[in-house]
């Protein structure tokens, strides 16, 4: 019996993935990480200085454990020279903007271009990145703009190379888990297929997004 258990344990797979969480100052990056890792939300705001870290352990399936090392990058760091160091060896990212502040959406493409210029997969392709439209619970008003046109945002994400986007709320725990799940799926797909070239996410053709009014809509997660 003991030898069989030893063989079964040897079959288990463990992964450690470095994931970046980036975006402008005050968009809720730290709150998203705290909600995802610790299942809490704090109304107190304290700006991240430089970079902070958190670890999330996922029992992905019966045979796979995924450890996510989440790097919380300060909003002002895009203007510094340290991001290349912070981004090194990352295999996935979340870019966050605040739906109540239009200027944070305007900065998304700058963050994405900065990311793509400083870190890539071994194949030379960009790391999988999810866009989070945060604070969709409505606190503080709603800066309607390009992000609120879902068809236009779908096109924007394809053009900018995002693997998908979600309306999120760290406060109300909306879509935080779903966004992370999609990102991990894409990271694992890259890891498994790294020697086989690019593979479509056939078994994740679409993802369900929760809207602010409690309804649902589907979003393609594959890049065209």
From TrEMBL:
InterPro entries on file: P-loop_NTPase (IPR027417), Rab29/Rab38/Rab32 (IPR030697), Small_GTP-bd (IPR005225), Small_GTPase (IPR001806)
GO MF annotation terms: GTP binding; GTPase activity
Pfam families associated with the record: Ras
Bilayer disposition of the protein: Lipid-anchor
Key words of the record: GTP-binding, Lipoprotein, Membrane, Nucleotide-binding, Prenylation
Compartmental location: Membrane
BP-aspect Gene Ontology terms: endosome to lysosome transport; phagosome-lysosome fusion
One term under GO cellular component: trans-Golgi network
Transmembrane segments: none
Source organism superkingdom: Eukaryota
Predominant subcellular localization, coarse grouping: membrane
Function: The small GTPases Rab are key regulators in vesicle trafficking.
UniProt similarity note: Belongs to the small GTPase superfamily. Rab family.
Name listed for the protein in its UniProt record: Ras-related protein Rab
Lineage, broadest ranks: Eukaryota, Metazoa, Chordata, Craniata, Vertebrata
């Amino acid at each position: 019996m003991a030898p069989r258990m030893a063989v079964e344990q040897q079959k288990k797979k463990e992964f450690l993935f470095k994931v970046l969480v980036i975006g402008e100052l005050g968009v809720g990056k730290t709150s998203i990480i705290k909600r995802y890792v610790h299942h809490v939300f704090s109304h107190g705001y304290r700006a991240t200085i430089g970079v902070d870290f958190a670890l999330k352990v996922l029992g992905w399936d019966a045979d796979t454990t995924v450890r996510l090392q989440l790097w919380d990058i300060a909003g002002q760091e895009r203007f510094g020279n340290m991001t290349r160091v912070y981004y090194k060896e990352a295999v996935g990212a979340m870019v966050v903007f605040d739906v109540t502040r239009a200027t944070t959406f305007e900065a998304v493409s700058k963050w994405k271009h900065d990311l793509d210029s400083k870190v890539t997969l071994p194949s030379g392709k960009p790391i999988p990145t999810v866009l989070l439209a945060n604070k969709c619970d409505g606190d503080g008003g709603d800066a309607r703009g390009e992000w609120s046109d879902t068809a236009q945002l779908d096109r924007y994400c394809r053009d900018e190379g995002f693997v998908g986007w979600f309306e999120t709320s760290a406060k109300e725990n909306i879509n935080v888990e779903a966004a992370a799940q999609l990102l991990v799926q894409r990271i694992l797909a890259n890891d498994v297929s790294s020697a086989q070239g690019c593979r479509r996410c056939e078994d994740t053709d679409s993802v369900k997004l929760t809207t602010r009014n409690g309804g649902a809509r589907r979003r393609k997660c594959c890049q065209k």
